[in-house]
């Protein structure tokens, strides 16, 4: 196939996705404006979606949708289309779309808190689950549900209170979520032999419970480590999820609460192949309950090439300030970046899929321009935006020189007084729950099977290549096999 033909197909796919995105779910979702009960809506949507997918599979199951080359296999499976993940889709140039909506569209269309300017993460969750923009009443219903489910079992509190202060907050989060599975409704239903068609209902219950409890767990970790173990206080049932989270952490600044709403919205989902989403998808496919699956995802998010990068960025910028001061010149920044490249990656830049500036970066930059335009650290982030892409762009092996989401978040949190960088990935984790758990409900509803890709050894790959050569197949024929 020629490059031009491939491009035309890609253009066609993109425009189809934009115009018909989730048309199956949306066109049939008429009931959602009449009820505020998310589970009731799912009960209507699921059979329709099951039917739509069954018909699609029956008609097209033998259609070849991609090729696999040796390079892809050794290259961390980049670009291999091997997962179905419904809640979001990443375009390498445009960035993420949540159920077909860009971040800007979500900011404009999702309901906001009274007096707030950023979308409520409750609304984003509703969108991820149903593919529809919720009404204010529906978002209020989610808030209420989460507030009602927020209590933490005493054994989890005791465990958190007994962790050594040196234990990284992400390890604490993962451990706390793992032991929360004592109360898993999914695990109980499975051992009670509940029929497969009902799995999603228990995955839903666990997901709602877990999302509701995460801010309290995160706040206990924060206060134990950085606020002398002071109590997080009670949930205010009249306030939204982010307001309660900010308050439990000990922050009452109105703009910080709005930042948290934005932060928790944009970090939620980034299609299915990234380490945390893929991990939760994989572990969930073994019918491990949502707690175990999400805890596994958090262990992946804790890696420096994934979620931990937001902590790494601020550590790196702080060292820059220590070395060359708060108002460096572009030339000094350039030298600092070149020095960094001698020993490590430049944190906050590059991406496995994106090839342009991450829109999650751009919306955080817009927030900074509005709320903290004169902050010195923000100015350094802006200088890095100007200087780094040119440097990385000159290094042939780097596919994307542009900033990603992690390049900006730390500076915003720091501005409002959250200087404990080790904690940043926990915030990312709380947000990531919205995406991976929305998908998990659907994974169980659609009866996704155990994930089990085929692996090869280098010797077996060599044997495959040798056999192909012997039969005279050329490289491109081989990859189509
Ligand atoms: C995100 C990241 C892991 C993607 O990796 P990837 O898919 O392998 O990206 P590429 O294909 O462009 O990488 C090719 C090479 O360029 C390097 N590279 C990519 N981004 C780089 C960066 N920001 N600084 C220095 N080198 C970088 C890679 O390490 C790799 O080098 P290697 O072949 O010697 O191992 C990578 O860009 C990175 O490490 N960025 C910094 C960490 C970060 O911000 N992570 C958060 C991601 S949201």
UniProtKB/TrEMBL annotation:
Pathway(s) of this molecule: Carbohydrate metabolism; tricarboxylic acid cycle; isocitrate from oxaloacetate: step 1/2
InterPro entries in the record: Citrate_synth-like_lrg_a-sub (IPR016142), Citrate_synth-like_sm_a-sub (IPR016143), Citrate_synthase (IPR002020), Citrate_synthase_AS (IPR019810), Citrate_synthase_euk (IPR010109), Citrate_synthase_sf (IPR036969)
Catalytic residues in the record: 306, 351, 406
PROSITE patterns from the UniProt entry: CITRATE_SYNTHASE
High-level lineage: Eukaryota, Metazoa, Spiralia, Gnathifera, Rotifera
Self-association and partners: Homodimer.
Recorded family membership: Belongs to the citrate synthase family.
GO biological process, one term: citrate metabolic process
NCBIfam families for the chain: cit_synth_euk, PRK09569.1
Protein localization: Mitochondrion matrix
GO terms for cellular component: mitochondrial matrix
Protein name as it appears in the record: Citrate synthase
UniProt keyword terms in alphabetical order: Transferase, Tricarboxylic acid cycle
Gene3D superfamilies: Citrate Synthase, domain 1, Cytochrome P450-Terp, domain 2
Main localization of the protein described in the UniProt heading: mitochondrion
Reactions listed under catalytic activity: oxaloacetate + acetyl-CoA + H2O = citrate + CoA + H(+)
GO-annotated molecular function: citrate synthase activity
